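Hey, I'm writing a tutorial for new members on how sequence and structure tokens pair up, and I'd like a real worked example in the thread rather than a made-up one. If someone can provide the structure for the chain below, I'll link this post from the tutorial.
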Amino acid sequence: MKHAIFICCLLLSITACSPSASDELPAFEQQALSATGEFANQLKQALQTAMQEGGPEAAVAVCQTEAPQIAADLSAKTGLDISRTSLKVRNPVNQAKPWQQAVLNDFEQQKQAGIPINKLKFVAVSDDGETLRMMKAIGTEAVCLICHGENIDAGLQAEINRLYPTDEATGFQKGDIRGAFSVVKYRTD
């Protein structure tokens, strides 16, 4: 009996000492925002360089090869799972998971209600408590329309079709939600 009481007390003390997932959210949010900011800056710089050196076709190639590498490098550096997704993906690897799709749909509703895209952010703990999740909306700027707009140059469209035969990521207008950065932290306690 004393042994059972000791084990119960030990389990209660371990539970009391371990932080809850919701306690971790503020620090996670700051880490995730920093990581997505770094991802956005590195990708933007790579795209600008490609546009200057080889035009839009080179930029599309950057999105195919360098964007996933930037995400992988930052994920390794931070210990977070960093990616991009959208309701209309160019690369099928970036297809939204159900929870991401729900957040993206919610972002669209918030935008329609007048919330600026740069304020659209989601931070939560998964239902099972195993992961911390953050998404931050990506707006469509005028330069994005070269590759993601309604009137894409025929030569560029041919390159997009070659690299991404199942492309859905066109038809955007300036000010649309292009997609979102997504960050997941897997809890270890």
